[in-house]
Amino acid sequence: MIFVTVGTQLPFDRLVRTVDDWAGATPGIRGVAQTGPSAYAPANLETFAFLAPQKFDLYFQQADLIVAHAGMGTILTALQLKKRLIVMPRSAALQEHRSDHQFDTVRHLPHRLGIQVAENEHELLHLLEMPSTATPAVPDPLPEASPDLLNTIRHFIDGRKPVPRFTVERPELPLTVSS
């Protein structure tokens, strides 16, 4: 299964349309897409404008391939779950975003991370046609990034409160009031 995700702030019809067209021309492909506020209605993908976090996580975990905008939350999640990932950055010139920061993001991604970058529709189609064995293996998350840090960053990006992995016992201190 292919899971397409474009975030929730702006439409990214160029990416969704490209994957939808490819899925229609490729027998046996099941695709699910989280499209955000899109005006484009895919014919070959099961689509959701928005997904509850639990449903989003389920599709992400079940996917053999993630195709996404170059958002850091998606990239971190794919690395953590060791998922094959193709990212296509949004273009400010095409009014897909307010800046070209996603192009800056992909320029700083080392190829060893197992992430493939398509800067346009033609490159995206080429990467979709490649067998999964052509994708570099996704390594374990970098040792400098603890699971708690990744969890906190991911939840900050998603606008959710982080889920604590543990609690710290703190003794109650007497409350004193000075006059």
Task: Describe the structure in your own words.
There is one protein chain. This protein is of the alpha/beta class. 34% of the residues lie in helices and 12% in strands. It contains six helices and six strands, in the order βαββαβαβαβαα. It has helices spanning 13-25, 53-62, 72-81, 101-107, 121-129, 147-158; strands spanning 2-5, 31-34, 46-48, 65-68, 84-87, 115-117. The protein has a six-stranded parallel beta sheet, with helices on both faces. α1 packs parallel to α5 (121-129) and α3 (72-81) runs antiparallel to α6. The protein is globular. Mean pLDDT is 79; it is low at 166-175.
Radius of gyration: 19 Å
The helix tally amounts to 6
Which series of helices and strands comes N to C? EHEEHEHEHEHH
Estimate what percentage of residues fall within beta strands.
5-15%
Category from helices, strands and their pairing: alpha/beta
Got a strand count? 6
Spatial shape: globular
List the strand order in the largest sheet.
3-2-1-4-5-6
Q: How confident is the prediction overall: mean pLDDT?
A: 79
| Cα separation of the termini | 67 Å
Poorly predicted runs are: 166-175
Biggest sheet features: 6 strands, parallel
Percent of residues in helices comes to 25-40%
